[in-house]
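Write out the 3D structure for:
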Amino acid sequence: MRKTQPVYYNEQLKMWYVFRYEDVQHVLANIATFSSAGIQGDSYLESSMLRMDPPRHSRYRTLVSQAFTPRNIALLEPRITAIVGELLDTVAHTGHMDVIADLAYPLPAMVIMELFGIPAASRDYFKQLSAQFIEEAEDPSLTEFVSQHKLAALLHPLIEERRSKPTDDLISRLVAAEVDGEKLTTRDIQASCILMLVAGHETTTDLIGNAMFCFTERPEVMAELRASPELLPGALEEVLRYRPSVCGTYRITTVDASFGSTTIPAGQPLIAQLSSANHDETVFADPERFDIRRAPNRHFAFGRDVHFCLGAPLARLESKIALNLLLQRFPDLQRPPEILVQLKMGGAGFFQGTEHLPTTFTPQARSAT
């Protein structure tokens, strides 16, 4: 598509797509022409930062970022390490695990719910609603997501409780956040939490799964990462480029927008195809080669500019800890060659990952404790 139809109109989805790195970068950088603001209605997702333009987006991001500082994220490392250890302990004696079901799916859900201070009794239901939301969001035929209203209803009493009895959790920080006398409303906090719960959960699950998909295809890479764990951050950046969790980002043209000889009229929905830009031959040397030492690596996996993903540091931290402990704990881990594992992609083409990723390793004796 980059070579033959770099600007393409999908008749079935009634959506424009751009595929080249230069064009994707242009879309992400020019917020006045390519708006993130969706159709404002009763959708919590549409009223979140994801669907805002500056200056409103800037004010909200400043408020939410007060609860998502690098210091707060760094403090999570011991707890994330402990959670990963517990998840691996559960399967170590069996000699096999599904990287998705046993690690990549439960880890980010457990972390984000502990961050929110969600009671343990409600966490299974939150995880269920989060998964339902992703399914609904990836179905182009749906215009209403039932799950988001159920999530909002569950969050409401927690938010009200934090107003009178604040604790050291993310919801309390969102309640307390203030810039120039402005604070977040209950609906603002609900929308922010739903965005972080759903986006943070799905993308980190897919990042861990996509990483192991890439690594198990290349045993020499796994051996190298075990011997030199300091290479893992760079390897994760290459996973984000090579098989990103988020393949595209949505915009609406505010005026007629020209790309070469093609003009997209004002008011048209557009997808900037991040995954294609990440493989653009004019930017990345030998882009179909998976290179854990690739530098520079200016991928678009977390967006760019004002909409750069606020949760990127947490996703990177969770993935680095999970993958390092997994590789070190099971030195002969491999993907059974007789089992075919395929990447999945939703109907709208936003998320990319695997539903299951079975692996085997030498069983380990149960701990005496």
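The first helix runs from residue 21 to 29.
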